[in-house]
Amino acid sequence: MLAVERHYLQTYGGGFTENFYGLKRERVLRIKGGEAPRASRAAPTLMRETLRLKERDIWKNLAIMVGLPYLKRKLDESYDIHIPQASILGPQYTRNTLPPNATIRERIIYYYKCFLRNIYPSINAAYYFSLLAFNLAYLFDNTKYFSPFLWLVGTRIRRMGQADYRAIALAEQAPPTPTPRPGNRPGQTNSIWNPTTFVSIVYPRLLSSLRLLLPTSIFALKFLEWWHASDFARQLSRKATEGLDLPPPIVSGMPINKPQQKISGDNNKKPQSQSRPLNPPANS
User: Fold this and answer.
1) Taking CA 29 as the corner, what is the angle to CA 25 and CA 33, rounded to the nearest 5 degrees?
2) Each residue of 186-224: b (16+ CB within 10 Å) or e?
3) What share of the chain is helix, strand, coil (3-state, %, to 5)?
4) 234 or 219: whose pLDDT is higher?
5) pLDDT per residue over 108-122, tens digit each?
6) Residue 158, SS3?
């Protein structure tokens, strides 16, 4: 995930999801208002290069795009594990003191549980409250950042323009074929197993192909989920098997009943059953 987001930030100026919706990340100018509308209209290409994320800005954005959500998820999982234990054990859980001869690992676990029990709930509440405050301010056009972490790194998200699409088209063009070195064999430089060729040509193309592969795979997965959850598949299979006349199964070792042959003539007539004469009643 880190490699994919870094490639998209370097090549397209935004994360994978942001690029899918035609958005980009750019630095904020340290001027009043943070924008230069006249310069953007007069020289859009120059302004794009000026506001483009540098290497340092890319790593800052990766920290809030990949590192911060990962840390938040781990803290939430640990909080969900340890807090039920504290509620079940009660005061016995909080009375556990650190032994004097505790190891480094025991000290880390002890202080980590104290942090989850006493400090993390306040940090979690401040986290969501800050997100709510920035979202409301961004909604009413009082700030250029919809997240406090974008404000910390000095980056904002904007919609891509014509200059961005032209730059992306130039970046996606095939790079020139490297010239072979004097000591290389013929065709050795162009091989995909060559580390230089793989890093410079194959690896960027493989990451760029995710723009089509990931949405297509997500669509296929959602379609399969709908197919198995709906009654359409069962109705279709039922209609397909209604008109089939399947023969009876044949089990080896069992005799097969052959149809009787018809005999012409009088032999075909069955003998009529003769009725027995009834005994006359005895005279009393």
Assistant:
1) 105
2) eeeeeeeebeebeeebeebeebbeeeeeeeeeeeeeeee
3) 60, 5, 35
4) 219
5) 888 888 898 889 999
6) strand
- Which residue, 175, 128, 168, 171, is CA-closest to 147? 128
> Does the reported pTM lie above 0.90?
no
- Amino acid at residue number 221: L
Pairwise CA distance, residues 198 & 178, whole Å: 12
Instruction: Give the chain's count of helices (H) and strands (E).
Output: 15, 2
**Euclidean distance between CA atoms 160 and 18, whole angstroms:** 10
| High-pLDDT (> 90) share of the chain, % | 19
Angle between helices 2-11 and 55-62 (to 10 degrees): 140
Number of residues in the chain = 284
